[in-house]
Description:
72% helix; 13 helices; Globin-like; mainly alpha; Multidrug-efflux Transporter Regulator, Chain: A, Domain 2; single chain
Amino acid sequence: MEYTVQKLAGLAGVSTRTLRYYDEIGLLRPARINSSGYRIYGQAEVDRLQQILFYRELGLSLDSIKEIVTSPSYDGVTALKEHRKKLLEKRKQLDLLIANVDKTIASAEGRIKMSDKEKFEGFKQKMIDENEKKYGREIRAKYGDETVNQSYKKFKEMTEEQYAEWEKLSESVIETLKAAFATGNPAGELAQKAADLHRQWLCCSWNCYTKEAHAGVAQMYVNDERFTAYYDKEQPGLAEFLRDAILVYTGMKK
Length: 254
């Protein structure tokens, strides 16, 4: 079956402007243009639009989606299986949050007692899921599944006090690092204090600390633009300065 822009937009629940934009950026081209100048979409385009909307639901950017669906190695069935896996993970997260709300209501009504740890389980899982979505591929390739899974487990099992300390350390790292950056000396006292605070922050979720791993994380902050952006939003050049400070701290500076 074939569809015009208007009919496909109505079928998929998107705007005609969206479909035209997808055409403009080369994400979803029509199968053909008819004699009247209308875009006509066939079954292949319908299937691709479904995939695009799946990826959008999972939070991917249009640039990322285009890179995926236009890749020569792209396989629709494999992609659907991956979509299903991600959606099940999302459902698991929602189920956990719903259960958390139910427990909180029951606790407020005096029907059960809810520990402070239980109150934050759903939110911690959400943070883990978001981190996995953003950086999972890179950190698993670098450190292995077992190390990453153990780190997530330790994070989930944090007490309220431990979580508060973790957040406090995170803020202290940034504030100390910004003050150290102003000195321009990554080997200076302030910079080395920031590096030590960063080590303490990592150890809140790491089961085993090594200088090599610490230096590797620091280098990743510079190599990966997403990590760089996180630190550099506070002060341009901060990610590289932190890397240099940690390399001095760990004795890995060449």
